[in-house]
Design goal:
Keywords: Signal. By secondary structure, the chain is of the alpha/beta class. About 30% of the residues lie in helices and about 20% in strands. α4 (about 140-145) packs parallel to α14 (about 400-410). The protein is globular, with a radius of gyration of 23 Å. The structure holds 2-acetamido-2-deoxy-beta-D-glucopyranose (3 copies).
Length: about 400
């Protein structure tokens, strides 16, 4: 059977060669493949490597490293996330907000860099040692390479400092435009397919809003988003209040919190008004409710008004939910318990709230991962969706249906 179908397949190729190329010689060649659209991966929150170099005036514990000659990887280096050492790590990874310049900087004596610009390797694997937990765009990347893509030529990566919000990432959008044009030139002027995860989706929305229609028609084939946090997530409210343990890495949310709440990206990712109504309750206490339009009061009462300052810096990006005007494929998951709100049993916001759950992928609420469909009828380019049920926000990157969908779109 197998032989028969193989022969039949060969025959079709042979005949089509003769028909297509009647003047050519009768040599059996493989049918010309459709040209591959080069890929640029755009990672999400936590999806890029971060290296630091230290020359610190002081450290939080005596055993913390004070100075290093070279840059070393801190994200996602699981050794540095061990108990005790995590305090050293937090001080090296966290940002400090300046409410006058409206920008963040590292702790004194910490220099950072995001390695691997243009390369796919550092977004295929977040952990340079390629530990299993650090697998990121690996499954999609391997599938593409198996089908003819070449790392660093037709498959690129656009990592960024995910700790920051778009208000501080202006240079990233400029660099992404350059990388797009360079990749287009490197690949016989084939338009680009962008593949984004999580926060990468709204980052690309902003990027495309900034480009002219002519530029997009020339350089952009499509965007594919996986678990896109298009319109933020209620989980960001939870992280500001309690921190997050990053799933099953054996970490404590409370230990991760000081680093996490210092990130303007977390304030950017608070629920967007595109899919949250102003009077929707996000946090409740016996005394009062905090609605979407009262998040600023929540952060004041939480004793962390900086969160709202960082949000204000990014409001113009959050509030402009205009269509990107490119072909979109939104791949997402549902039916995983996803935080929708917090309910405190006491009026003390330092107590532990009960989490209210709704539908989503465990991190991003369904209404946000589906928000791409709000642009149907508002842009002429098509918007397709794939819902894979019961797959977690990071696991979905390795989901067979997702990988096959991308394969069908890109290769077959
Ligand atoms: C800025 O920060 C300083 C010091 O933390 C604080 O005293 C001041 O009230 C803040 N200003 C604004 C506008 O938030
Ligand atoms: C990727 O390409 C760039 C520029 O073409 C080059 O500088 C870099 O070393 C390459 N990286 C790898 C891993 O080949
Ligand atoms: C908070 O909102 C809920 C509806 O979401 C309402 O039933 C409740 O009475 C409100 N609580 C307070 C204290 O206003």
């Amino acid at each position: 059977m197998r032989t028969a179908s193989f022969l039949c397949f060969t025959f079709i190729i042979f005949v089509s060669q003769i028909v297509d190329n009647s003047e050519a010689s009768f040599i059996i060649r493989r049918a010309p493949k459709k040209p591959l659209s080069p890929v640029i991966f755009v990672p999400g929150d936590g999806g890029s490597q971060v290296d630091v170099k230290l020359n610190k005036p002081s450290t939080v514990h005596i055993f913390c490293t004070k100075a290093t000659k070279e840059y070393f990887n801190i994200w996602l280096n699981l050794e540095l996330l061990a108990p005790l050492i995590i305090d050293c790590w937090t001080d090296n990874a966290k940002l400090h907000y300046d409410n006058v310049t409206r920008t963040t900087s590292n702790s004194p004596g910490v220099e950072h860099r995001i390695p691997g610009w243009g390369d796919s390797e550092t977004v295929e694997w977040i952990d340079p040692s390629h530990a299993k937990q650090g697998a990121y765009f690996k499954s999609v990347g391997n599938m593409l390479v198996d089908n003819g893509y070449v790392r660093n030529v037709s498959m690129r990566g656009a990592p960024f400092d995910f700790r920051k919000g778009p208000s501080e990432l202006g240079q990233y959008f400029i660099d992404l435009k350059k990388l797009t044009e360079e990749t287009y030139d490197l690949n016989d002027h084939e338009p680009i397919t962008y593949i984004a995860h999580s926060m990468g989706a709204p980052m690309l929305m902003i990027f495309f809003q900034q480009q002219t229609e002519a530029w997009k028609e020339k350089y952009v084939k499509r965007m594919i988003t996986i678990a896109g946090a298009w319109a933020g997530s209620a989980k960001a409210v939870k992280v500001f209040a309690m921190g997050d343990d990053l799933g099953s890495l054996g970490l404590f949310a409370s230990e991760m919190k000081p680093m996490q709440i210092s990130m303007p990206s977390l304030a950017f990712l608070l629920p967007f008004p595109a899919v949250w109504k102003p009077d929707e309750v996000l946090v409740s206490t016996p005394r009062r409710n905090y609605t979407h339009s009262q998040l600023n009061e929540f952060f004041t009462d939480l004793g962390y008004p900086i969160a709202w300052e960082m949000r204000k810096d990014n409001l113009k990006f959050v509030e402009n939910f205009a269509p990107p005007n490119v072909e979109i494929h939104c791949l997402y998951s549902t039916k995983m318990k996803t935080v929708e709100g917090l309910r405190y049993k006491s009026n003390d916001l330092s107590s532990t709230p009960e989490l209210i759950y709704g539908d989503g992928d465990g991190s991003v609420n369904l209404r946000s991962s589906q928000a791409c469909t709000l642009w149907r009828g508002l842009q002429k380019q098509s918007i397709s969706t794939l819902n894979v049920e019961k797959v977690e926000h990071f696991e979905i990157l390795h989901n067979e249906k997702v990988v096959n969908y991308i394969k069908d779109l890109m290769i077959n």
